[in-house]
Amino acid sequence: MTAATVPSVHVTHGTLFYLGEADRPSEVVLAARAPFEDILATAGPVTGYLAYDPAAPHKGLRGSLRVPVGGIDTGIDLRNDHLCSEIWLDAERYPEVHMLIQDSIRVLPVRETSTFLTHDMTLVGSLSLHGRTRRLEVPARVTWLRHAGIKRHGGRKELLAVRTRFKVGLRDYGITGGLPGRMIIGRSFSESIDVEAMVFGSPA
Amino acid sequence: MERRVLIVTTGVVASAGVIAAWMATGREAFTKSRTLHREPMRIDPQDPLAQASFDEGASQTRLIRREGFRLGLLPAPQRLADRHALSVIPLLAAIWMFVGVAVGLARRCQATAYRTSPRRGIDRLGRYLKQEARR
């Protein structure tokens, strides 16, 4: 992704931090209650960008993050196949999960120095999954580092780190997990999935 | 009798082996080749993100992926010939089905052998003589 494909409202918001440019891998962890054993899964690779202005951190964050449905790994190949099937996420028709961050509210400073800024904020935007888009408001901690610091963590680039945790209600996105009349969501499978994301971006 | 005891003992030993393999490989619900689980995270105080309080209030765990075959209670095969088809419940079912058939065959062989042996005639004569004596 280049600045040319980024909406102007995000370009003018601040520096663009691309997820692929960071020296640390972004990570999304999903957790759900399921029959026989609870599911713990990873989702990736996370791609996209975050727009942030270190000179005006109170403006918060904007951005766009994408995760391929086929990149969700539950640790069991058969379960991954089920997850991509029509009755679950239907990866063939809806191959991506897209999180769009349109605004940030309640931006509160945690720590600020000349080399880093850490703020807590609420990200406002939308989550598109399974062909449906729903409004999303999630708490996040955002840290900007003037440079990534010690050598073992990579070069001297700026780094933007975002950590968030939220729930995704499966019914809201039309995911039933079964044929009509035999839905397992809310019965043996939890109504929602816990999402824990830690994403890192650096300027191109 | 001895042959049946030997068959049942073999079944018990084989079942114990399957259960031991399940316990030794992590007592998973499903057979799998990799596992994902959370482990406590050691935060490096030299990490600039830790110094910036990025991790403060986080779950302090990280997701660990471990490769290696783990025998589960239930199978999770993608194809017919898949090692993930092996699991405790089908293996125990197969072992005890084999034991049942083997014990049945052993009993049948024993009965046939008795019917055709001179021993059967001697036993019948003995019973007859006892009945006559009672009269």
Strand content of chain A: over 45%
Rg from alpha-carbon coordinates of chain B: 30 Å
Span between N and C termini of chain A? 10 Å
- The secondary-structure element order of chain B is HEEHEEHH
Q: Give the number of helices of chain A.
A: 2
Q: What is the count of β-strands of chain B?
A: 4
The termini of chain B sit apart by 35 Å
Q: Give the overall shape of chain A.
A: elongated
Biggest beta-sheet profile of chain B: 2 strands, parallel
Shape of chain B: rod-shaped
* Computed CA radius of gyration of chain A, to the nearest angstrom: 18 Å
Multimer state: heterodimer
Uncertain segments of chain A are none
What proportion of the residues of chain B is helical, as a percent range? 40-55%
Unreliable runs of chain B, pLDDT <50, ≥5 residues? none
Helix content of chain A: under 10%
Query: Strand share of the residues of chain B?
Result: 15-25%
Please characterize this protein's 3D structure:
The complex is a heterodimer of chains A (204) and B (135). Helix content of chain A is 6%, strand content 48%. Chain A has helices at residues 8-11, 77-84, and strands at residues 15-18, 27-32, 39-43, 47-52, 61-68, 72-73, 96-112, 116-129, 132-145, 159-169, 192-201. Chain B is α+β, with helices and mostly antiparallel strands and 135 residues long. Chain B is built from four helices and four strands. Chain B has helices at residues 2-24, 48-51, 88-115, 118-134; strands at residues 28-30, 32-40, 61-70, 72-74. Chain B has a two-stranded parallel sheet. In chain B, strands 2-3 form a two-stranded antiparallel ribbon. In chain B, helix 1 (2-24) packs antiparallel against helix 3. The model of chain B has no long low-confidence stretch (mean pLDDT 88). Chains A and B meet through strand 3, helix 2, strand 8, strand 9 and strand 10 of A and strand 1, strand 2 and helix 2 of B.
